[in-house]
Amino acid sequence: MKNRKAGWVLACFMVAFLAAWKPVAEEGGVKPDQKEVSIDELNTSAAMKSWVLCGFAEGFNWPQSAKSGAFRIGVLDDPDLLKFVLNNCNMTQYGNQIVEVTDVPEVPDGSFYHILYVGNIRSAAWKQWKKEVRDAPTLVVTQEEGGVPEMATVNFHFVNGIMRFQLDESRAQAMEISIGNELRSWVE
Amino acid sequence: MGGINKILFMLCGMCYAGLLQAQSPVERAIVLGSEGRWNAAYEILQPALQSSHQQDAHAWYIMGFVQKERYKASRALEAENPERLAAVQAFQRCRQLAPLSSDAKMAGVALEYLAESFYQDAHARIAQFQIGEDQEVLGLLRRYESVWSDLHEDAEFTDQEFDLYHRLAEANSGFLDLSLALEERVRRGAFEQAVAHYQAAERLRPNDERTQFNLAVTWYNEGVRKIRGIHSQMTLPQLMQVQAACVEHFRAALQPMEAAYALNSNKASTVNGLMIMHRALEQRDESERFKRELEALR
Asked: What pTM does this model have?
């Protein structure tokens, strides 16, 4: 009799336990699907090149004749790069010169650029600009396969994704533009 | 404990107290438990389990409930919560000691609930995740697996582990935003953990496209963050160092993104990812190829 009553009590105990237990599962909740991480769509190639172009203002030395007025950086045929260069170094100061970044018109307008990046050496615009910069101390920068193109001074060259610089020393000397020691170690 | 439960426990207690005149520590613990006095029940039962009731399966069974209620009162989320561990040990001990079949069955049910509580606490910890809590979350998962597999010999945890690793990776990724004022060392730790968790998920399911994609993007975005961190005071050699570090990340990103593409070449986000990654590595022809593929998909 006693055992039967004890059993009844324990049955009540168990019923109470089950009723008392609120599974934590209801609170945490396992959600089956996983999120897809969003890729950062920044044009890293243009961003990186823009910083390097800005750095060229200090990495090279221009002749005395080009050391007054604004320090002008122009970008031809590469709107993405232009946006980054504008954003990163327009209106900054190198030495006593203020950097002025501009989109380069397709038809030369007589403007002088300290640095001119040419996005496409096969474009009609560059054919015209080539004549314009022939005798000017303009550091023409390109990114082409097969070495530094005619009339350019620096060519970006990538080895396994890492940027290196190809330099036309004779062109640089003719323009009286000299390369700083810091930059020289990155020249191929 | 809810109102209905209190009433049930009180009924149990009244029945027991009125009809049986509690005598043994086990009986007294039941009465105290019915009154919601779990600590008092524990104080009564604990010495008995060390001595006279050491081999009493039923006493361990009751102790399991007592400890379980003490754990619930604490509502602690840590894996090593002593009351929860003690509840598990008590129920397991009960099952080892040839209990009544009803006790064995109910102890099994209670252990399943306790096991699930570890798993759900792991998720709750992720919901409030702070950097460096990875091992505690994984500790909860291991506890869940240990208790559950003790009940079910053929238990298999791939789904749960996979899900948790993904969530841990996402939780760590949440700290990678540059706008958060975190020490670089701390942020770097979060990045490494995110990668490690995706890699753990990848080992569980190498053919899961989402895992490969997320792993790739985590690597890639970390490289981009380095570029976003460039400022005008950096020298050219510093820029070159940043670039070298970025390229390492971009290369690491490419392999899992290619794996995701091999699993599903018709997914725009994957094709877009490959286009972007090849562009970042200055592989223009490859980037153009995926750009055309992306246009065709859209």
From this structure: 0.83
Which tokens sit at A54? Answer: 């800005």
Is the pLDDT reported for residue A93 higher than 50?
Answer: yes
pLDDT 10s digits, B60-89: 999 999 999 999 988 777 778 899 999 999
Q: Is residue A52 part of a domain?
A: yes
In the block, tokens 């080892």 appear at: B96
Q: What is the pLDDT of residue B78?
A: 75
Most B CBs within 10 Å, among A2, A4, A5, A17, to test the B interface? A17
Angle at B27 between CA B25 and CA B29, to 5 degrees: 65
Range of the domain at A129: 44-184
CB contact under 8 A, A19 and B30: no
Q: For residue A180, tell me if it sits in a domain.
A: yes
- Could you give the number of structural domains in chain A? 1
In a domain, A18, yes or no: no
Mean pLDDT value across chain B: 91
Q: Which residues of A58-82 are buried (b: 16+ CB within 10 A; e: fewer)?
A: ebbebeeebeeeebbbbbbbbeebb
Give one DSSP letter per residue of B123-182, joined into a string: HHHHHT--TT-HHHHHHHHHHHHHHHHHH-TT---HHHHHHHHHHHHHHHHTT--TTS--
Exposed / middle / buried, residue A4 (Cβ in 10 Å: 0-12, 13-18, 19+): exposed
Q: Test B280 with A16 for CB contact under 8 angstroms.
A: no
CATH number for the domain harbouring residue A107: 3.40.50
User: Which residues of chain B are within 8 Å of residue A16 when distances are taken between CB atoms?
Assistant: 5, 8-9, 11-12, 34
Q: Could you report the per-residue pLDDT of A120-144, keeping only the tens digit for each?
A: 999 999 999 999 999 999 999 999 9
Q: Is A166 helix (H, G, I), strand (E, B) or coil?
A: strand
Hey, what are B252's tokens? 């690491």
Point out the residue among A13, A23, A37 whose CB comes nearest to the CB of B30: A13
Q: Which residues of B touch A58 (CB under 8 A)?
A: 236
Contact A58, A183 (CB under 8 A): no
Spatial CA neighbour of B229 closest among B193, B173, B180, B161: B180
pLDDT digits (tens, 9 = 90+) for A1-59: 444 455 555 555 554 554 444 433 333 333 445 688 999 999 999 999 999 999 999 99
Domain annotation covers residue A149 = yes
User: What pLDDT sits at residue B264?
Assistant: 97
User: Beta-carbon neighbour count of residue A114 at 10 Å?
Assistant: 25
> What confidence tens digit (pLDDT) does each residue in B226-253 have?
999 999 889 888 999 999 999 999 999 9
The verdict on a CB contact (< 8 Å) between B69 and A59 is no
